[in-house]
From TrEMBL:
<dbReference type="GO" id="GO:0004497">
    <property type="term" value="F:monooxygenase activity"/>
</dbReference>
<dbReference type="GO" id="GO:0005506">
    <property type="term" value="F:iron ion binding"/>
</dbReference>
<dbReference type="InterPro" id="IPR001128">
    <property type="entry name" value="Cyt_P450"/>
</dbReference>
<protein>
    <recommendedName>
        <fullName>Cytochrome P450</fullName>
    </recommendedName>
</protein>
<keyword id="KW-0349">Heme</keyword>
<dbReference type="InterPro" id="IPR002401">
    <property type="entry name" value="Cyt_P450_E_grp-I"/>
</dbReference>
<keyword id="KW-0479">Metal-binding</keyword>
<keyword id="KW-0408">Iron</keyword>
<dbReference type="InterPro" id="IPR036396">
    <property type="entry name" value="Cyt_P450_sf"/>
</dbReference>
<keyword id="KW-0560">Oxidoreductase</keyword>
<dbReference type="Pfam" id="PF00067">
    <property type="entry name" value="p450"/>
</dbReference>
<feature type="binding site" description="axial binding residue">
    <location>
        <position position="363"/>
    </location>
    <ligand>
        <name>heme</name>
    </ligand>
</feature>
<comment type="similarity">
    <text>Belongs to the cytochrome P450 family.</text>
</comment>
<dbReference type="GO" id="GO:0020037">
    <property type="term" value="F:heme binding"/>
</dbReference>
<dbReference type="GO" id="GO:0016705">
    <property type="term" value="F:oxidoreductase activity, acting on paired donors, with incorporation or reduction of molecular oxygen"/>
</dbReference>
């Protein structure tokens, strides 16, 4: 039976993710668990397959021009869908709006536009049902349940006999496959030789449609689920910390002025307090709450822990973000100021704060994700007051590949009453 080592020591995390990276791959056990859904996509492979996908993706995600393009897509989705939707429910006495569901739709539209050059229109005012999105949700949840089974034998036998959750998983993945193939087919019809989106990059190098399908699914998982989770948690903490919202709005007014409606890409980068608030939210509520690797050979971690070959080694960003030894006596408080020095954002070691992983496998979309979160926050807080219906309740999360708030995030949205210029700073 394989052992399991869990660590929250930043020195150990650095050893696993950087210093002795080659000894700690994702490993076959997890590749098998997620193989039916993710196949040979970047998040489920090691070695040459991982390196090939990462190199192509880094060419796409690393340039300033691509980040500007992503900013344009996000801004367009905010202007033409997110804000009109919030405006349509603002001030009404009907059922609260589930902001988590809104952000899942928003993120799905964005990642499909950016990665594939296609628009699924999930955030239209009618909030249409998306078979792909629903099937994807079910497939990720049921795949995650495999990891929590007492023994792999249980889910493997259920898969063999096509019973219970494994039958449902198979049906969900069948729908995911059909629609992923549709994405690829539509992309071929439109032509990809002159397009610079992620899928076009991969299609220029790969002819294997099964492999392309795995790539499509992997980038949806990265761009949709993690972003929706991060935005949901951010707006929950903002709704329960009105003083932080006031400080963010003071910064918006200072950087944007009182008449500008939307922030520019450069203005977003000037908002240090907002950046700190986003980092603080991610510290307390990381979208990926833990991550595991499997040791190829015997090893000794920096704290002296012996790791036997084949051991599952887990580091836990959720737990690390709440440890007094790492963050001080106020570690459970939402306090953006902990990230500021003389008003400027000051980062911590990524191995103390492995929200985006760190080292060689650090998240390629980190900078774009941060810009997207801040752009949404700026645009919504500039125009609306968002009040959580269950303000006093500590959020609980459903098990899954990414953190999903149990019961969603029901909110009441109201048009913001703008403060007169002469009263600024006297709230």
């Amino acid at each position: 039976m394989l052992g399991n080592t869990i660590t929250a020591n930043p020195a150990n995390v650095e050893h696993i993710l950087k210093t002795n990276f080659q000894n700690y791959p994702k490993g076959k056990p997890f590749s098998v668990i997620l193989g039916d859904l993710l196949g040979k996509g970047i998040f489920n492979v090691d070695g040459d397959l991982w390196l090939f996908q990462r190199k192509i993706a880094s060419l796409e995600l690393g340039s300033i021009s691509i980040r500007s393009y992503a900013f344009e897509i996000v801004t367009g989705e905010i202007k033409h869908r997110l804000l009109p939707l919030l405006s349509s429910v603002a001030g009404k006495d009907g059922d609260p709006l589930d902001l988590q569901e809104v952000f899942r739709r928003f993120s799905f539209d964005n990642i499909c536009k950016f990665s594939f050059g296609l628009d699924p229109c999930c955030l239209e005012l009618s909030l249409p049902i998306s078979q792909f999105a629903d099937s994807f949700d079910l497939a990720t949840k049921l795949s995650a349940k495999r990891a929590m089974a007492a023994s792999p034998f249980i889910w493997k036998m259920k898969r063999l006999l096509n019973l219970g959750t494994e039958k449902k998983l198979k049906e969900a993945i069948t729908m995911v496959n059909v629609l992923a193939k549709e994405v690829i087919m539509q992309k071929k019809k439109l032509g990809f030789s002159t397009h610079q989106d992620l899928l076009s990059r991969f299609m220029a190098s790969i002819k294997d449609e099964a492999f392309l399908r795995d790539i499509v699914i992997s980038f949806i998982l990265a761009g949709r689920d993690t972003m929706a989770s991060a935005l949901t948690s951010l707006f929950w903490v903002l709704a329960t910390h009105p003083k932080v919202v006031l400080k963010i709005r003071d910064e918006l007014d200072r950087v944007m002025g009182l008449t500008q409606e939307f922030a520019s890409f450069n203005q977003i980068r000037e908002m240090h307090y907002l950046h700190a608030a986003v980092y603080e939210s991610l510290r307390l509520y990381p979208p990926v709450q833990f991550d595991s690797k499997f040791a190829l050979e015997d090893d000794i971690l920096p704290d002296g822990t012996f790791v036997r070959k084949g051991t599952r080694v887990t580091y836990h960003p959720y737990a690390m973000g709440r440890m007094e030894t790492l963050w001080g006596a106020d570690c459970l408080e939402f306090k953006p100021e902990r990230w500021l020095k003389n008003g400027d954002f000051s980062p911590e070691s990524p191995f103390k704060y492995p929200v985006f992983q760190a080292g060689i496998r650090v998240c390629l979309g980190k900078e774009m994700a941060l810009v997207e979160m801040k752009t949404v926050a700026v645009s919504v807080l500039h125009r609306f007051d968002v009040e959580a219906v269950t303000r006093s309740v500590v959020p609980r999360f459903d098990p899954g590949l990414t953190a999903t708030m149990r019961g969603g995030l029901p909110v009441v949205v109201r048009e913001r009453k703008k403060v007169e210029p002469s009263k600024q700073g006297h709230c």
